[in-house]
């Protein structure tokens, strides 16, 4: 996306504002923010350029900045972007532009061909320590559905007869991150990834006993139970595995014995031989077929057809009623219809009809469309027996995480086993410890539960009741081949620990593709009649997104928006409720296609790989997955299973290829010119070179990796990896070595050798410092043999050069003092030198939270050491030292000259700079106003980038003149009244009449050119009046302040007296005259007339 120059400027300004706020670690006032921005950028925040009249309005327009008002102050705070990735990702998924048409994967009946032989990469043994650290991500825990994994009992060695001839393709090409629409529009699956049932499941080995959190399904994919060979046990999700010697009477565990019978019977009969006339699971006589259900044929008269259907199948009376709806235009009439069949009710809403007959026809057809699939059954179905029901229903229920209606399970059972459930089947399954039967308003809701779970008989599962229109979609069963592999396509990627795929080499994939075609045609024609009025979290719907139709599950529901999880893709997005429609049962029979896995061997990169652009390159890729059984932790409740992923075209290990890409992407420290970056200093050299860290997510991951590796080496030293090191074999090689200063282990590189070859200089690649070691006595482990990730991790130490006019001789001490390793500083690139090394400025916050430039402080301190720090060239220790007693005799104007005064009873033009009351205000000689304005302008330019002083408390004495920054952001000449301690120095703003307390760090030595103009603030009082009360009241002071402050007056100097507070100061006794109007106004007389003062 291209930005205009103004948009780019606005983005840069916002980025700079965020840098100021985040570096402050807390909220700051608007005034404070403006000062920091001016310090960093040398100018005010240019909000007017973006069309805003106030800074507050501009800040409010930025979504990641927050304003808060407390009292008279407005505070700003920045949202840390990494803390809200989920919200931001949800916003980014809302696309308004037109997308390309949907391209779903289609099933191919071509003969299955094995992918290119994979390279069978395996991670270094050191990585096993990370397996116990795996945790499910919050997103995965929120959106994931139950998924089941089938894998063989005896893992066979991988097939070796792979077809060759494919050219190696380098997939490491930069690819733009695809949005949700692009991910849903996946390209057609390659023929190599599709097969018939016989190529995958015909000779599949039976599943194995496992403690993996995903249940191990034993039901075949072809509709009937098809288990051969060794028998597996079924472990329900998040439950304890059932012992093999359990009593057969336990309905949850009798599956084992049933499968033994099935194995024996399946050798004698098949569904084709059986033709539905016998039960393969029964040891008794064949069951009698159920009575043949009547045939129903629609005639076209919908109302009559509905009544006939209800009568034929005993559904009760049919009630049809129409209602006229008032229209906006009185001439128009609209009708709606309501049809009730037994306990089922149907409405023509939201459709409107001009004819009540048409409304009745529409509503009757709607009822027929719903009732016919529920009540029309196949002819001559066998009736399931008691034991079969208790064996088969629990596994079916377990795949419906949020429950299922009894009528849907009854239909699913008939489709799956070609048998009908008896009339009392609900009573039969209610005896099972694994099944909860909950009575709804119109039917029963069935849910799977663990034996002994608190959610048992009579207890409500959810406060949100299911609607009769709600259907459930069975969870995914991942079917690995006999070599523990499967072919799949990547559909969505979150991180290396959350990769969503769908299997492409089983019959379920073919059924899903055929179903999706029918679903698309159906909803394109009948969408309006299946709109939903209410959306409940956890329920399944059909979503219209980007012109296509997708099965979704509602995760979170707001007033108008719904967070939807695409159960066949693994993605999620925010949709309007208007885009959701009722999911018909015929489109809910195929299991959810998306399953989630994680990349084994990349455990160290799970967190750092979140939202990785490099990881997005595997999106839509056709892959071969191999189950990493050794990476499964049986003690963890894992929602994903670990795999080794191979490119189906080249056979390359994607796990192996992604390691260097992800490490470089997540941990490469990058700084750009014009931006502000927070860094930590790691090493300072005498030539002005400075090395630093960026404390990024990748850096934090590296620290944990190094600590983990150090612990392993100390516990079990890999001495077998130690080898002789020479100048030849060590070139460009990384080692793991111990630093003698702190005893810890770090990544190092040998950069130079002594002529004899026994001593070498090593460089600590993550810190920038060097050391000399004896290679014959030091232990150096080759890092490439310890860890794939650490050996390819980017170097963390970044070298820059501090921008200074001259490097002081004690630069290391000065810079280390100002920039300790544990305190973050801000970095800004000024330019690049002839060797392309960045020349930078560093900024730091003082203890008083003032941002200052470290470069300027070092340069100023170097200059001060050439002089005395007291605005002259005399030696530093010759400055006049005042004791506390003598400080009383120092005038407030300090060592500056006093301005010239007129003679007694003469006119004196003044400007009132500051007023407290009629006996306490400050005047400036009006004749020197122009000189004062010039001085102030030059003062701002000279000190605009300086806000910190290297002075110590002993350098400050009463009477000295400094520059200091007032809270209004301007610089003023400041005289020292008294030094209390380093954190409190009493000062006087000698040109404007303010008293204040500052710290040592806020006083900046003043250049001699600013000492020529006399101080301008003269203390004064009105003569010949006194307060009417004993003292001036608050109202008196407020009136006087508003009347005279920041205004020009003529005055008459009556007398001069000493200041009672400061003995060395004088007070001018004046008569103030306001000549701004036609008639002159004497301020003293005005106060008397207002009964504020009286004559004295």
From TrEMBL:
<dbReference type="InterPro" id="IPR002999">
    <property type="entry name" value="Tudor"/>
</dbReference>
<feature type="compositionally biased region" description="Polar residues">
    <location>
        <begin position="276"/>
        <end position="287"/>
    </location>
</feature>
<dbReference type="GO" id="GO:0007283">
    <property type="term" value="P:spermatogenesis"/>
</dbReference>
<feature type="region of interest" description="Disordered">
    <location>
        <begin position="269"/>
        <end position="299"/>
    </location>
</feature>
<dbReference type="InterPro" id="IPR035437">
    <property type="entry name" value="SNase_OB-fold_sf"/>
</dbReference>
<keyword id="KW-0744">Spermatogenesis</keyword>
<dbReference type="Pfam" id="PF12872">
    <property type="entry name" value="OST-HTH"/>
</dbReference>
<dbReference type="GO" id="GO:0030719">
    <property type="term" value="P:P granule organization"/>
</dbReference>
<dbReference type="GO" id="GO:0034587">
    <property type="term" value="P:piRNA processing"/>
</dbReference>
<feature type="region of interest" description="Disordered">
    <location>
        <begin position="151"/>
        <end position="179"/>
    </location>
</feature>
<dbReference type="InterPro" id="IPR041966">
    <property type="entry name" value="LOTUS-like"/>
</dbReference>
<feature type="domain" description="Tudor">
    <location>
        <begin position="532"/>
        <end position="590"/>
    </location>
</feature>
<keyword id="KW-0963">Cytoplasm</keyword>
<feature type="compositionally biased region" description="Low complexity">
    <location>
        <begin position="151"/>
        <end position="173"/>
    </location>
</feature>
<dbReference type="InterPro" id="IPR025605">
    <property type="entry name" value="OST-HTH/LOTUS_dom"/>
</dbReference>
<keyword id="KW-0677">Repeat</keyword>
<feature type="domain" description="Tudor">
    <location>
        <begin position="955"/>
        <end position="1013"/>
    </location>
</feature>
<keyword id="KW-0221">Differentiation</keyword>
<dbReference type="GO" id="GO:0043186">
    <property type="term" value="C:P granule"/>
</dbReference>
<dbReference type="InterPro" id="IPR050621">
    <property type="entry name" value="Tudor_domain_containing"/>
</dbReference>
<dbReference type="Pfam" id="PF00567">
    <property type="entry name" value="TUDOR"/>
</dbReference>
<feature type="domain" description="Tudor">
    <location>
        <begin position="728"/>
        <end position="788"/>
    </location>
</feature>
<feature type="domain" description="HTH OST-type">
    <location>
        <begin position="9"/>
        <end position="92"/>
    </location>
</feature>
<protein>
    <recommendedName>
        <fullName>Tudor domain-containing protein 7</fullName>
    </recommendedName>
</protein>
